[in-house]
Write a structure and sequence with these properties.
It is a single chain. This protein is an alpha+beta fold and 152 residues long. The chain is built from five helices and six strands, in the order H-E-H-E-E-H-E-E-E-H-H. It starts with a helix and ends in a 23-residue tail after the last helix.
């Protein structure tokens, strides 16, 4: 099965209670079709006392079964919690987005998308080089130097 078809047949399940394990998650989604794999990621920190990170993935044999599972299980209650069920998204590369160790402008293609043409640079320089006479901040204040109400 190709990565694209695997992704279409995989659902994300969020908001899992700590007592939920792979078997319970598989049993809950079994009515919607043949399940290939169930994964509940463990915490990244070894010092964590939680059994998992609160979400999981269920991969179905057929993409239509995944859609049925999303339609029927999204916002349903599972072990006392309302779960979110959605189509799984591809995992981001560690070199992109937040947490990346590479500056955004050093990533491939960023310069091509955001580069300014030489013509635009010259136009911007011409605008900043044009000197306009400074406005006199005291202009319009040449009237009488009297404070208070006007005499009638």
């Amino acid at each position: 099965m190709s990565d694209a078809s695997r992704l279409r047949s995989t659902v994300f399940v969020g908001g899992l209670e700590n007592s939920v394990n792979e078997k319970l998650l598989a049993d809950a989604f079994l009515p919607f079709g043949e399940i290939v794999d169930v994964t509940i990621p463990k915490p990244e920190l070894p010092s964590s006392t939680d059994p998992h990170r609160g979400f999981g993935y269920v991969e179905f044999e057929v993409a239509g079964d995944a859609k049925d599972a999303i339609d029927n299980m999204h916002q349903s209650e599972f072990f006392g919690r309302v779960i979110k069920v959605a189509a799984a998204k591809p995992q981001k590369d560690s070199n992109e987005g937040l947490g990346s160790k590479t500056a955004i402008w050093e990533t491939e293609g960023w310069i091509a998308r955001h580069a300014v043409s030489e013509e635009d640079r010259q136009a911007a320089l011409n605008i900043t080089n044009v000197k306009t006479p400074a406005e006199d901040p005291m202009r319009g204040l040449e009237g009488p130097d009297v404070a208070g109400p006007r005499p009638e």
